[in-house]
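Preliminary data (for renewal application), flavin-adenine dinucleotide complex.
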Amino acid sequence: MIGFVKLPEPREVRASVDRVVDLTGDVREVHLRLVEPSRLEYRPGQYADFRIRNSRGEVEVRGFSIASEPEEKGLLFAAKILPHGLAGAYFRGLAVGSEVSLRAPLGGFALSKDGGFSRLFVGTGTGVAPLRGMIRHLLLRRGEKGPVTLLFGVRHAADAFWEKEFRALERDHGNFRLVLTLSQPPHDWEGARGRVTDHLERLVTHVRDLEVYVCGWPAMVEEVSRRLFERGLDPARLRRERFD
Ligand SMILES: Cc1cc2nc3c(=O)[nH]c(=O)nc-3n(C[C@H](O)[C@H](O)[C@H](O)COP(=O)(O)OP(=O)(O)OC[C@H]3O[C@@H](n4cnc5c(N)ncnc54)[C@H](O)[C@@H]3O)c2cc1C
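Predicted structure:
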């Protein structure tokens, strides 16, 4: 049985926006400063429910993965701005100093506490958000020395936000590798091409000592899981978060 760390109790959180960065044409990075409570216990990979008022004045919730790891200051998120979405309009309207109300931490998408594994992280688009916190935590806090691979799929090179940060991690940690794949690459692109599922075969040579974390839109998560289970991966060694 896979061993997971104990998950903290969720809390009602008041926060304010510290910084907003447009990472791509439709992905916004939001840094929050915690107001009440001033510290929040969470596991890298968990998410927060944002309370958002709709046009009728009712409060709705939308989940967003926490992209920071607990040792970083405040909370970090990467939100895809859907043109007609409630959360899309909300994140588009956030400015420095805006007050935010959320419930966190939620969910069980968290690192196992077991050692001795190769770890494969698979994310598409903003699905890479919780993986960022998990990978940083593994490499920087736990001092993980086993192989850690991030398979990150986006459409165009310009969509690959945080690539620089992951490349810097690669330089500092010989056991970490970023495989960035573009589904619509320019003709002179020398990196990986196609969808994340096109690269599983070559990246996963054996499943016995492998732990996998997958995050993104449901169809991708299902397809990656199916293919790895077919290869013989123990379902207990695959954790997934679906952006339903
Ligand atoms: C646990 C969890 C964690 C999540 N973490 C993140 C995160 O870190 N970053 C992030 O960007 N999102 C994340 N999501 C998804 C997020 O919660 C919203 O569902 C998403 O951003 C759409 O919300 P919205 O209010 O803008 O759109 P809605 O108002 O819900 O929908 C507006 C319209 O867009 C359609 N639509 C909804 N989703 C999509 C889509 N993916 N593509 C095309 N059309 C769509 C709907 O059918 C509807 O017609 C997460 C979801 C879950 C459950």
